[in-house]
Design a protein that fits this description.
Elements: E1 8-11, E2 14-17, H1 34-44, E3 61-64, E4 66-67, H2 80-86, E5 93-94, H3 97-111, E6 115-118
Parallel strand pairs: 3-6
Antiparallel strand pairs: 1-2, 4-5
């Protein structure tokens, strides 16, 4: 376990952290595997699977298109500065458009849920 980057776990009555060592520039390989999500929910029961416990009453899913930010808004915990210091992310982590569409398709077909895309047109502006 100690060799795996970005993992926090309990051991010997304490919490261990292997360190933040893996910060990919491209997020394509990090997309959820919804076939596995469905299998786990069926096996364990959706009522016992937070955050999915209210999913059947209020279904909605999210496709994350990027991680990080190009702005340094003073009150934001997700600012460029916060991401560089806390998460060691120097630039935006971006998902390719093909991956976004594939994830959207998989959600709508497997989960039958509306999809909320996390995007912003502000990234087209020049950062301040």
């Amino acid at each position: 376990m100690e060799e795996i980057p970005n993992v926090a776990y309990r051991s010997d009555g304490g919490i261990k952290f292997t360190g933040l060592k893996y910060v990919p520039a491209e997020l394509d390989e990090l997309r959820p595997k919804y076939d596995m999500v469905v299998k786990v929910l069926v096996r364990s029961g959706i009522d016992l699977s937070p955050p999915w416990s209210t999913f059947l009453k209020h279904p909605i899913a999210t496709v994350v298109t990027y991680k990080g930010c190009v702005y340094n808004c003073l009150a934001c915990g997700g600012s460029r500065y916060a991401y560089s210091v806390v998460f060691q992310r120097k630039n935006l982590g971006i998902k390719r458009l093909e991956t976004v569409f594939e994830e959207y398709r998989e959600i709508t077909e497997r989960l039958k849920a509306p999809v909320f895309l996390l995007v912003t047109s502000r990234f087209l502006e020049k950062p301040t």
